[in-house]
Amino acid sequence: MAQRGKKYQEVAKLVEPGRSYVPDEAIQLAKQVVYTKFDETVELHLRTGLDPRRSDQQVRGVAVLPHGLGRRVRILVLTQGEGVRIAQEADADSVGSDEYIKKIEEGWLEFDVAVATPDMMGKVGRLGRILGRRGLMPNPRAGTVVPAEDLPRVIREARRGRVEFRLDRTAIIHVPVGKVSFDNDKLLDNLATMVDAIVRARPSGAKGQYIRSAYMATTMGPGIRLELPALMALKPA
Predict the structure, then answer these.
(1) Which of 191, 204, 147 is nearest to 30 (CA)?
(2) Based on the domain organization, do 88 and 136 belong to the same domain?
């Protein structure tokens, strides 16, 4: 493992080894351990008791954070016909069909959310190799493949702070919940909304304890273990 820098080692001393923190304490501590000059993202990492190899133990869903993510989300809409007009009027950043599929195949990835209409999926499917591993592939289960008339709603949700979550191959869910600059109460609201959405997405094949451990961390900061009962007791506003 690479040696951590001196600044990281200094702030890491503020996190008590072996201690679990209730959410509001963890948020305050996450702000204290920031040592960079940019507005770091606050992240939640949940270790589950699921088996990612089993199809009935997959987790995938969406949460709309009440206070957003603290940045403008770049939205690409892959559509044609009337969908182009609707997406443009809904203020999508990039709208089109074949021209954007070609750009993506050539390496263009200047967007944070990709949305598609069903009539485009025959063409969009070939982008799975590129977008899938980046979590950008439009997917009906994630609510990013919708009829043209639903595009304004999906674009509006993405602007507000629509976050897609999914189980990775190590049975962990990694998600952002805001920025260090957010007020503590806003971060707590976002955290509660995210946890609630993940709990509701518990798969039918889950056995035993669904969430086994939870950590909060900033982009460059050390992990802070969360007290699980207190985290699970959070309720969205």
Answers:
(1) 191
(2) yes
Could you list the residue range(s) of the whole structural domain that residue 182 is in?
A: 6-68+162-232
Beta bridge partners, 174, equal 45
Amino acid at 3: Q
* Predicted TM-score (pTM) of this structure: 0.81
Whose structure tokens read 């990775």? Answer: 168
Q: Who contacts 110 (Cβ-Cβ below 8 Å, separation ≥6)?
A: 74, 94
Q: What is the CATH number of the domain that holds 121?
A: 3.40.50.790
Tokens at residue 171, please? 């049975």
Strand pairing category for 94-96 and 75-78? parallel
- The span from the CA of 48 to the CA of 170, in Å, is 9
3-state secondary structure of 233: coil
Q: What is the count of structural domains for the chain?
A: 2
Report how far residue 139's alpha carbon sits from residue 159's, in angstroms, rounded to the nearest whole number: 18
Q: Could you give the 3-state DSSP secondary structure of residue 118? A: helix
- Mean pLDDT of successive 10-residue stretches along the chain, which has 237 residues: 81 94 98 95 97 94 91 93 97 97 96 95 94 89 93 92 90 96 97 97 94 97 97 93
